[in-house]
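Thought: the user asked what Ribosomal protein S18-alanine N-acetyltransferase looks like in 3D. I have the sequence; next I should run the structure tool and report back without guessing.
Action: structure_tool
Action Input:
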Amino acid sequence: MLKKFKNWYQGLFSKSDRLFRKQQMVVKNHIVEIKNDKYFIGKAMVTDVPELLKIEKSVYDGQTPWNYTAMLKELKRSDDRLYLVIRYHDQLVAFIGCAFWEKNQECHITNLAVQKEFQHRGLAYFLLTVVIKKARKIDYSKITLEVRSSNHHAQHLYTDLGFKRTGIKLHYYVDNQEDAIDMSLDIREMDTRPNNYGL
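Observation:
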């Protein structure tokens, strides 16, 4: 009897946590201003998959690290995935994807891509800050990601936001066997920094 009550009680809090997390994942479609340009931001939809893959192709020299099926599966997992898109004049120009792992209170950035002609305009920075704010609201402890060892611009961006190198995955990328650098941001430390980038 006591075991049943304990399971019921824990289940009650677990459902409450999941509901709270789901509420925090809600993103209303709206207009944002980034470096004096107006963009539309919203949650990625299944119909966006072809455009998401098109951006990947433009960024990764004709390759798509994720295929249609994998991307579709990610977008359908609304409980623990968040994919955001940025549009400029109805053209999808940037997106970010992340997984929220409840077990270890970690948010893992699975994908971040900005169309080449829209790079260096603050879009990646903006998307990262949105994800960091979401993770903080649901009281997660850290954000992790992998980045290509040759992608120095992205590494610089992540370092600016407080990410630190935590390791390396040898021959991680299938297309060219390039190494991946593991990076992590301890969200709990952010409040103690003199400049927390408005997060």
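Thought: the tool returned a structure. Summarizing for the user.
Final Answer: Structure for Ribosomal protein S18-alanine N-acetyltransferase predicted. The CA atoms of residues 130 and 199 lie 9 Å apart. Strands lie at 30-34, 37-43, 81-88, 91-101, 106-114, 142-148, 164-169, 180-186.
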